[in-house]
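SEQUENCE, STRUCTURE TOKENS:
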Amino acid sequence: MSGETVLRATGIAKSYAGVRALDGVSLDLRAGEVHAIVGENGAGKSTLIKILTGATTPDAGAIEVRGAHVARLDPQTARALGIAAIYQQPTLFPHLTVAENLALGLERRRWYQPIDWQERRTRARALLARIRAHIDPDQPASELSMAAQQLVEIARALGTDARVVIMDEPTAALPQDDVERLLEVVRQLRRDGVGVVYISHRLDEVFALADRVTVLRDGRLVATREAASVDRSELIRMMVGRDVQAVFSHERGTPGDAVLRLDRVSCEASGITDVSLTVRAGEIVGLAGLVGAGRTELAQALFEVLPRDEEDWKLISSLLGERESLRLEAKRTEQPKQQSMFISWLRRE
């Protein structure tokens, strides 16, 4: 890659209450490059992104944008310098249209000036066309799929003339078809000369997109390598600090009696039909499937967020008395902003 360096961070350090989140991390991004950042949870990726977008001030280090030192970077300055971020959960206003969401932060008018709705729609169509997104500017954001919302976020970033786009786990909640569509948009950004910082736990995406990859571990920089020069096993070893065999070792336990049994559970409201499973004491049972397969709906039926057909529902607990409370915990939903979290939900038998 021979593009101009559009962003450089040198010796970035950040601590929280004595905990070193970042310790001397350096990173550079070139125009027309996809630079992936990988690492385990807690490696420092999110903290680094907050610093690069001006949301957090580093304790030490320097930041340059297109060769110019930035003494203090805040969100407004970052936007003015052409830095935009796209997160795992889109930040669109659900009750506004696509055109109205794109107008936020882009239009500069005084309160008494009338809105030119035709101009607003025309600009929205032009921005969406740049990323080949076939989305109606008049459609409410609440009616868009997660993938379409991500595309609107990218279009909004381009509307600010962003030359640095930071993407933090943008495909985490997307089915495979939408993932491929989003990856093609990232490739188009690269062809247009935009520098892209791409954070993902999905290593297949990293190898499919990245020109270079930076590995963080425990807040420190492990290495920055050309993506073509490193294989999957080596990348994982750099991320976790041990061999792949040790990473995926599995110790099998001896499950106990059933503590939860679903016997042909149905939920007409969500389309769940005849789902059966058993969870035993000391056992982890995973629910797999694409977005829309019914995993979230099953969990919502379990916690009575969605109605369920009670005649098909059985809760069996050998750990608690028959009439005592059964403590259930749900940590996260696919759309935490809209559905929040359910912590320590108590159900009475």
Notes: Confidence is low (pLDDT under 50) at residues 311-332, 342-349.
